[in-house]
Write a structure and sequence with these properties.
The complex is a heterotrimer of chains A (269), B (496) and C (439). Chain A is built from eleven helices and ten strands. By secondary structure, chain A is α/β, with parallel strands linked by helices. Chain C has 20 helices and three strands. The longest helix of chain C has 37 residues, at 23-59. Classes of the chains: A alpha/beta (269), B mainly alpha (496), C mainly alpha (439). Chains B and C meet through helix 8, helix 10, helix 11, helix 12 and helix 13 of B and helix 2, helix 12, helix 13, helix 14 and helix 15 of C.
């Protein structure tokens, strides 16, 4: 009980100066009988990069998927607690999941371009949401999104080619462009670089840093260096608990929690 | 000796050989300091292989070739001039000789002694009839010596074969036994034999295909030597008359077009009904249904696939056909006041509808497999952008699964074209060429059955045409299947 | 508290800039799409229900057969004395048993024997199959000759159908198969308790017959049984051997590719083509007898092989490679590894596939028509070389009979066939549930 209270406070005590985009209070997730998250309380600051780190199986991806209700697609998953986006409860029955996901986009671990052309991949979101009134607007959205994702230069002359034909790093940036094209408010990234080589990773990391200007970003990462490089706020998960949360610099130089210390010094992982 | 007895003796020899080999290998192992390369049981199998394989191969070869050699020998002795007088073909005459010969074997020994070359056929026939052996009336006296000779040849051949096979088995066992030594790599040899057997078993698939192609090819070529291919493939009238044996009148017309049209029409009606239902059912089960309802509904739909087609045929005949006919009577009566049916009980619609019921589970389970094999990451990608489920299905999942679904539909079409029992009972036998789905039409399969049930003569076009039809059916479905399998392969590679 | 107000303001701000993304329209489309799915499944299940209901409602009565208890006088005038019978059975074999049966019924119904019309009408109530039934009684025990015994006799199919209420009795007398006089007889028999519906064992034991009440599935069941034995004895070992080779030994080359394509194609070749193969190869070329269950079994074996091979290969593939590495690492040869470790682990899957293949073969009709199993076979086949029919073929033959009672028997036969199939498939499901291993 005491421990929970402590975590609770840790989650809330962050930087009062920056506006909060999403809040979560005591979020729990059960997969059937098994509890995967034991009450996570965490505030996500607006237009910042929040990194979720921790050893594998600690629940960071599960938590991320709660934020835009991707866990709904798993039959056995049950989510408890409260998550708010701009003060609205995202699990409220009045909130529509489609609308929510249009506001909280997601980029997945493995690049998953649709087996369509590059153009159609990016245009897919705007098309289904009816964001463009005509072809010109759609073109513009696609071009801007590709530019923002830093992919335009590489692919502008072959937009009709299948997205699956790109290299791994390009595919992931295509997926980011696809997410941006819907102009979400928050972008969730689930280990976006784990399937990429170091050079592609560097490109994507740069891109994440640039995207911070316009979007709130939550990124799950396995690599502490990556968290240190791209994030402003870091949350450390351990076995379904939130072990510690704080400004990234502080987390890596002077962590409070023993488990965080062990993790960043490489005792487990 | 009868073949089963010979087999039994060969197996007994190999068993004895195996037991002896086991003992010897065991004693060798005990007596000598060196270790055996293979365990005694492999030595035993080694000897058993030597005893059985060569002798059984000889047996098989003998059983296949001896009758051919004997029959050529006897046929050569049939006097040609008498044959010409008696209005018999060589095949028919030989058939009578053969039945007389096999009749001889039924007679008890003392009666058989009385039959000589000079015995008139009348007496022999009388003897045989007393023993309950039917004899053709066209027998002639010159056949009796041939029959006696045939019988003698067969008896001799069987004795020689029996002795040869048994000696070979014993020799093989002895040879294997002599080779037993501590360093004999018996296991490797036995495993070689096992592998050979495995290869032989997997070649059966190829042999079956070859058998299908050749068995139909010969008869088809024979058919086309009587009826020209152009007449067959482009003829629009199907009216094969069964002419009496021997008479050489017109054989009737063998126009393939009405059958092909009926086959395709009924198949198309069935697909038109089955594909949307099956596809939507598959989509619902793969994408929407909770595990619970899925585990109930899926097996229930698969029950439809497990029901034999003859049951569907009967269902069409006694339930669906009359129902549609009565329904049309009522509708016609309500609309025009004239109570007469415009749908016949046997019609394209009846057959198509019932065939569709059979195809639904086929379409749905094939499509279900394909839809669920679309990677989850693609669905997540689309849902994560805020697409609804149906948008995800329509715009991402189905396009990605399209090649697989197309191949599933091709396989379904191949099944619809080859379906027999439903159309035999529900489509009718009249070879109409019409566009009206309420009229009966007939199919390739119905005509194959019609031409081949009853008495067969392998030298009349009425029988042979069935093989030409079968060949055509085989080629059509082969193309569909191969193309479908090709697409499936390409599709699998895409996601592996 | 302040927290709540802050978030309230934020949400108001968010709502104002909420984009219109056509939620209502899109959800309507979603509901429509989902409804199509439900409708499709509903139609499928509906068809299944109608099919089963149509068969069962028509066929369940076939399991009961109307029988009449008739006092039979085994008169010496007609049968001859037992002493005669010992000398020669010919008279006993050829005696006019239907006459004995009719006389008994006439006595039971108190009909004036000189009223020829009434006597004939009464005689038509009894099945002509009584000839065999009564003869068997006499042959079993000659001492019945000269006595009078109560015997339950099969009623004719008209009486049977009438008892089961299958005739519309409101139509004029001359347009229905049973007359008013006969109906009176039936009423009298009912009043005497001399008529009853008993379980129809004959449906399972009789052979072919042109009269519905003495037609049974005996020959067909034996024929199907022989064929299943042959399929099991040939297709299982060959199928397993072929799968082992393809899955465990075969190098990846053109030849094995060809075999693969072949097997997959054979699984989709129309069954009637296999019938043509059987006719041309087994009957015309090898000279095996037509209508024999041996030929049927061979044809069905070739048809079932692809099913068994595909199932077996899936079962073999499901055994994890680590098992093979473990055995090979201990110095077992490839063959030993497969036969000692992989095959036993795959056995439940192979068995399930085999049962499903057998069930398919049991329901197959078309190829059997072509190899002449549509025969009128009265006597039970003693060996697989004797003429026989098969369950589905018997259904086909009965389906072509016009008589009302045959339609009932056909549905009854279908119920029996479906029951066999259900048992086989349930066994397969049970085996899968019981022995399935998840790696």
């Amino acid at each position: 009980m005491e421990n929970m209270q402590a975590t609770f406070n840790k989650g809330r005590a962050v930087q009062a100066a920056i506006p909060i985009k999403m809040t979560s209070r005591d979020v729990t997730v059960h997969y059937g009988q098994k509890q995967a998250l034991n009450g996570i309380t965490l505030d996500i600051p607006e237009r910042q990069v929040t990194a979720l780190i921790g050893p594998s199986g600690c629940g960071k991806s599960t938590y991320l998927r709660c934020l835009n209700r991707m866990n709904d697609t798993i039959d056995s998953a049950k989510v408890g607690g409260e998550i708010r986006l701009d003060g609205e409860d995202v699990y409220d029955s009045a909130i529509d999941v489609v609308e929510l996901r249009a506001r909280v986009g997601m980029v997945f671990q493995k690049p998953n371009p649709f087996p369509k052309s590059i153009y159609d991949n990016v245009a897919y979101g705007p098309k289904i949401h009816g964001l463009a009134r005509n072809k010109d607007e759609l073109d513009e959205i696609v071009h801007i999104s590709l530019r923002k994702a830093g992919l335009y230069k590489e692919v502008h002359d072959r937009l009709d080619e299948p997205g699956t034909g790109l290299s791994g790093g390009q595919q992931q940036r295509l997926c980011i462009a696809r997410a941006i094209a819907v102009s979400p408010e928050v972008i969730l990234m689930d280990e976006p670089c784990s399937a990429l080589d170091p050079i592609a990773t560097a490109t994507v990391e740069e891109l994440i840093d640039e995207l911070r200007e316009n979007f709130t970003i939550v990124i799950v990462t396995h690599s502490m260096q990556q968290a240190a490089r791209v994030s402003q706020l870091t949350a450390m998960f351990h076995l379904g608990d939130l072990a510690e949360v704080g400004p990234t610099e502080k987390m890596f130089s002077n962590p409070d929690d023993k488990r965080t210390q062990d993790y960043i010094t490489g005792r487990f992982g | 000796m009868s073949t089963p007895t010979i087999l039994l003796i060969v197996f007994a020899i190999s068993l004895i050989g195996a037991v002896m080999a086991y003992r010897r290998a065991s004693t060798l192992a005990a007596a000598q300091a060196t270790q055996l390369h293979s365990r005694p049981v492999y030595h035993a199998s080694y000897v058993a292989c030597w005893a059985t394989i060569p002798s059984l191969l000889l047996l098989a070869a003998w059983l296949i070739t001896a009758p051919i050699l004997i029959s050529t020998d006897i046929r050569a002795k049939i006097p040609e001039e008498t044959l010409a007088q008696s209005e018999l073909t060589e095949g028919l005459a030989y058939g009578i000789v053969e039945s007389l010969g096999s009749g001889l074997r039924v007679l008890p020994a003392d009666e058989r002694e009385t039959v000589t070359d000079q015995t008139p056929v009348k007496d022999l026939s009388a003897l045989l009839r007393k023993r309950g052996v039917p004899v053709a009336s066209a027998g002639a006296d010159w056949m009796v010596p041939l029959a006696v000779e045939l019988n003698a040849l067969q008896v001799i051949s069987r004795w020689v074969m029996t002795i040869a096979v048994i000696v070979l088995a014993g020799f093989g066992a002895g040879w294997g036994y002599k080779k037993i030594a501590p360093r004999l790599r018996a296991r490797n040899s036995v495993e070689g034999v096992v592998r050979g057997a495995l290869i032989a078993a997997s070649s059966i698939a190829i042999l079956t295909t070859i058998g299908i192609v050749f068995s139909m090819l010969f008869e088809t070529v024979d058919f086309f030597s009587r009826i020209s291919p152009a007449e067959f493939f482009f003829g629009t009238v199907w009216e094969p008359r069964f002419s009496a044996a021997g008479s050489t009148g017109s054989a009737g017309s063998f126009g393939f077009i009405p059958l092909l049209a009926g086959t395709l029409y009924i198949g198309a009606v069935a697909m038109l009904i089955a594909v949307p239902i099956g596809l939507f059912a598959a989509i619902y089960m793969a994408e929407y249904a909770k595990n619970r309802s899925r585990s109930v509904v899926k097996p229930l739909l698969e029950v439809l696939a497990g029901i034999p087609t003859i049951v569907y045929g009967f269902f069409a005949l006694v339930t669906v056909g009359p129902f549609l006919r009565d329904l049309s009577t009522e509708i016609n009566g309500l609309v025009t006041g004239n109570y007469s049916s415009f749908i016949q009980a046997q019609s394209v619609l009846t057959a198509g509808l019932v065939m569709a019921i059979m195809l639904i589970p086929f379409v749905s389970s094939l499509s279900d497999d394909i839809i669920t094999s679309v990677p989850r990451s693609l669905r997540d990608g689309s849902l994560g952008l805020g697409a609804t489920r149906s948008e995800t299905i329509k715009k991402v999942v189905l396009p990605a699964a399209l090649p697989g679904i197309v191949s599933a539909l091709l396989l379904t079409a191949s099944r619809a074209i080859g379906e027999t029992m439903i159309v035999v009972l529900a489509a009718g036998v009249a070879a109409n060429l019409t566009l009206d789905p309420f009229q009966p039409m007939t199919t390739i399969t119905v005509k194959i059955v019609a031409q081949l049930t009853g008495d067969l003569e392998f030298d009349s076009p009425q029988t042979l045409v069935a093989f030409a039809l079968g060949m055509t059916l085989f080629v059509i479905t082969l193309c569909l299947n191969i193309y479908a399998l090709y697409i499936v392969r390409k599709y699998k590679e895409q996601y592996e | 508290m302040s927290d709540a107000t802050a978030s309230g303001i934020a949400s108001a701000a968010a709502r104002s800039n909420r984009r219109d993304i056509g939620i209502k329209r899109r959800y309507a489309a979603e509901r429509r799409f989902k409804a199509y799915g439900i409708i499709a499944i509903g139609i499928g299940l509906c068809f299944l229900a109608i099919l089963l209901w149509s068969i069962i409602s028509k066929g369940y009565t076939a399991f009961w057969q109307t029988e009449i208890r008739v006092p039979i006088t085994f008169s010496e005038q007609i049968l001859g004395t037992p002493e005669d019978a010992l000398k020669s059975e010919t008279k006993l074999m050829m005696a006019n048993y239907p006459r004995i049966a009719r006389d008994g019924l006439v006595k039971l119904l108190d009909i004036d024997p000189s009223n020829r019309k009434a006597v004939t009408a009464a005689g038509k109530l009894i099945s002509s199959g009584t000839r065999v039934a009564l003869r068997d009684i006499v042959l079993k025990d000659l001492s019945v000759i000269g006595t009078t015994q109560d015997v339950w006799l099969y009623a004719s199919s008209e009486l049977d159908s009438a008892m089961k209420g299958q005739y519309d009795l409101s139509v004029p007398e001359n347009r229905r198969p049973i007359s008013d006089q006969q109906l009176q007889f039936i009423a009298k028999l009912k009043a005497d308790g001399a008529i009853a519906q008993r379980f129809n064992w004959g449906l399972f034991t009789f052979g072919a017959s042109s009269r519905a009440e003495t037609a049974g599935l005996g020959v067909a069941i034996i024929g199907s049984f022989y064929m299943m034995l042959i399929v099991l004895a040939l297709a299982l070992p060959i199928g397993v051997a072929a799968s082992i080779y393809l899955e465990e030994f075969a190098p990846k080359n053109k030849f094995t590719d060809l075999i693969e394509v072949n097997i997959n194609n054979l699984a989709a070749v129309p069954s009637i083509v296999f019938g043509l193969l059987g006719l041309a190869v087994f009957i015309n070329w090898f000279g095996l007898p037509r209508s024999a269950s041996l030929v049927g079994g061979l044809v069905l074996t070739l048809m079932t092989l692809p099913t068994i091979i595909i199932a077996t290969r899936a079962a073999l593939r499901a055994v994890p490679p680590s098992i093979r590495w473990a055995a090979l690492g201990l110095g077992a040869s490839k063959t030993q590894t497969v036969f000692h470790h992989v095959l036993p682990l795959a056995a439940p899957g192979i068995l399930t596939g085999t049962i499903i293949g057998l069930a398919q073969a049991l329901g197959e009709t078309a190829p059997l028509l072509l190899i002449g199993m549509v025969a009128f076979v009265v006597n039970d086949p003693a060996t697989p070389m004797d003429p026989a029919t098969a369950l589905p073929v018997q259904i086909y033959m009965w389906a072509n009979e016009a008589e009302r009672a045959f339609a009932e028997r056909t549905s009854g036969a279908i119920i029996i066939l479906l029951a066999f199939l259900a048992i086989m498939n349930l066994t397969a499901i049970f085996l899968r549930r019981r022995f399935e291993r998840r790696w």
